[in-house]
Amino acid sequence: MPAPIRLRELIRTIRTARTQAEEREMIQKECAAIRSSFREEDNTYRCRNVAKLLYMHMLGYPAHFGQLECLKLIASQKFTDKRIGYLGAMLLLDERQDVHLLMTNCIKNDLNHSTQYVQGLALCTLGCMGSSEMCRDLAGEVEKLLKTSNSYLRKKAALCAVHVIRKVPELMEMFLPATKNLLSEKNHGVLHTSVVLLTEMCERSPDMLAHFRKNEKLVPQLVRILKNLIMSGYSPEHDVSGISDPFLQVRILRLLRILGKSDDDSSEAMNDILAQVATNTETSKNVGNAILYETVLTIMDIKSESGLRVLAINILGRFLLNNDKNIRYVALTSLLKTVQTDHNAVQRHRSTIVDCLKDLDVSIKRRAMELSFALVNGNNIRGMMKELLYFLDSCDPEFKADCASGVFLAAEKYAPSKRWHIDTIMRVLTTAGSYVRDDSVPNLIQLITNSVEMHAYTVQRLYKALLDDISQQPLVQVASWCIGEYGDLLVSGQCEEEEPIQVTEDEVLDVLEGLLVSNLSTPVTRGYSLTAIMKLSTRFSSVNRIKKVVSIYGSSIDVELQQRAVEYNALFKKYDHMRPALLERMPIMEKTATNGPTEIVQTNGETEPSVVEPKHPPPVTQPANQANDLLDLLGGNDVVPVIQTTLPTKPASAGGELLDLLGDLSLSGIPPMIAYNKNGLKIDFTFERANPNPNIAVITIHASNTTEADMTDFVFQAAVPKTFQLQLLSPSSNVVPALNQGTVTQVIRVLNPQKQQLRMRIKLTYTHKGSPVQDLAEVNNFPPQSWQ
Amino acid sequence: MMRFLLLFSRQGKLRLQKWFTPMSEREKKKIIRDMTTMVLSRQPRSCNFLHWKDLKIIYKRYASLYFCLAIENQENELLALEVIHRYVELLDKYFGNVCELDIIFNFEKAYFILDEFLMGGEIQETSKQIVNRCIESSDMLQETMEEYMSKPAF
């Protein structure tokens, strides 16, 4: 039997195949030869055959018949055989295979082999793909090797231990003694893998974490090692572009992050080294930035002092200006994570973030868009919206839906004026109209209805937009609805905001009828147009024309249209006396609330919120331990809470003042309350249930100032007991103008899954007449509907 | 930890596959298909990071080969780029101006080098010289064997 062809021969041959079929033929022929060779139990060439099999496996051909052969190779005494055998095992013999367990004995023997490279092979295989049973059987051997003085084996044993712990977490304890002197090694390989092992243990077990923090004094050791890395001179063995062993530095920073999280002492101990790394690391190459990135992540996660946090955010800000796309991407992702907690610091980089909207890279654009929306507030809304609308114009279709939704949300929260709001909506509808989400149409209609003084302006603009383009369905739907409602304003030519256009009733009906017949209109849009035409019958004088249109559609193939037309026809014929009442102007719509009583407010034009006298909340006996549960704003326990005892009583006359202060009240059945009123600063809370989660109460605070001097640098903070979760969104501004000239609003979202009584501790800081003022208060007088 | 490392050519032919978690053949094939499609369709000057399921995919092109590394979400992407670069340097030192053909004809060596650099999804050795020395010594052990048999083992 001739010797089987060599591996490189085979590779060369297979590469000459010109078609897939030719290749398959060659492979099949060779596989047959290999199979017969295996059957002959040929020891000499087994290695060669398995190597060829592995090559064919990489090309995608089945190689399972080689599994047992790998085992035989591993059991052989020759190093070459073992090398290929273990490689074959790692490629073909993962733990899903039945024969996997047969490796255990071989690996056990090889772990005790006299040659370290054989031991290395065994450790590597075990550490890459050992099953749980194997790990259980061999953990003892690994632990022994973890204590050897041979650094080559020690580092492999450490990573093998990591794998064992991942597979069988209960075995973690047995490796604890061996970790004692791991960090006093000089060898970087051992240091690195030891840090990985310690990280794995700390991540998996809080007890281990506590143990390493307190008993082993891990933090000082790590700080020392990191310091040596930074301060030491050039070390050719570990140098990467002038930085000494960046892989080890990053791993240490990660372990420090875990140790410092929620632990003051540890965080304190690492403050200096973090500052040092942050300021001294060379940033010209990717490797330096990788270390800085890890440093920033660590600073943000531990309890670092504010100076360090600002340093971290500034590093991210510098990243944003870097030419390297990857670094910009990483900066945006990190800023997105920190924008809630360090909002003001991130705001400082707003213009750079907005510039990233114009980046060519898709991933960067997406991150920049998300971050921009997170940064919008009452102060920057106009500028930001300009940029975001420009982005909406020019971005890829995959972004348009999200961007449009974001614009609507932001506009609703922070619109400086009604006209601006309507203009923004118009802009979105005309530029990205087909990408707007379906539920935006009813939301927009509600918004337009409630902006009474803008009706003429809105309908005029929508009409003009329709004349230009009827292909974008959401735009067309909103426009037809408005024309149906406010068509009389349109033809009467009364518009205060801009030059009124001259339009006749017939022209308007032409447009609406055009929508009905156009191929571009969807059935839903047709429904809107037909209803709009019908509504105009009470607003226009050309009723006959309308009657004709309606009767035509009584025989439409579209069932929905047909039904509508038939019903409207009936309205004309039999119920004509009811027609005016049925088709009159829509009332102001309240926002739908899922819980609590909703109060419906009537009539055109006036928002007359009914101000209900809030009921005195029933006194709740507070168990003693509840007081300790309150999150301590200052971190210490020395603060005596100021109990707010004034209960809001609202006589009828005060209803008027409340209205001025609170502007457009979002109506929910929950009465507003005064949370704080001292030294001229008054804070009111108004409530709303967040859809769709009834466990979330959305509270808007309104801060007003009756003194003659402004309150600047106003910061409102709140804390709630442990069973709640609090999210504080950004304030509209930080200046509370004097003499009630304006209010600062801020939204608080409280998650109350256990429906416990809502309590809150608030802290106010501001500067008044040049001197800083700080006050703490407890708010206990929440109306029951806000938390039930 | 790292989840897998793939090397493939511009035509999508696989040159190396290292998996750090157990997966069925079918899953592996699907992942290879997904990765090659995603990476090969990227614009030339885009950033090197992608999101795929719950993993971050870091890819970099060196001449005619794409290196594609999948890491878990808490890992450092910029460092992953350095890991890929370090592997390329190790291959380069070993083969001397490495090219795709070297990896095709000596794939088992590429695996051996990788197994001295990474293990179980983590970095095993951070020194280039030590990795190279280990490979050379292992090769030496192998060669002695071949001399004994007076023919190449495979």
UniProtKB/TrEMBL annotation, chain B:
AP complex mu/sigma subunit domain: residues covered: 1-139
Keyword tags: Coated pit, Cytoplasmic vesicle, Golgi apparatus, Membrane, Protein transport, Transport
Keyword Metal-binding applies: no
Domain of life: Eukaryota
Topology with respect to the bilayer: Peripheral membrane protein
UniProt subcellular location: Cytoplasmic vesicle membrane; Golgi apparatus; Membrane, Clathrin-coated pit
MF terms in GO: clathrin adaptor activity
Pfam families from the UniProt entry: Clat_adaptor_s (PF01217)
Keyword Membrane: yes
One GO term (biological process): intracellular protein transport
Gene3D superfamilies in the cross-refs: 3.30.450.60
Cellular component aspect of the GO annotation: AP-1 adaptor complex; clathrin-coated pit
Protein family per UniProt: Belongs to the adaptor complexes small subunit family.
Subunit structure: Adaptor protein complex 1 (AP-1) is a heterotetramer composed of two large adaptins (gamma-type subunit AP1G1 and beta-type subunit AP1B1), a medium adaptin (mu-type subunit AP1M1 or AP1M2) and a small adaptin (sigma-type subunit AP1S1 or AP1S2 or AP1S3).
Identification of the protein by name: AP complex subunit sigma
Protein species of origin: Sphaeramia orbicularis
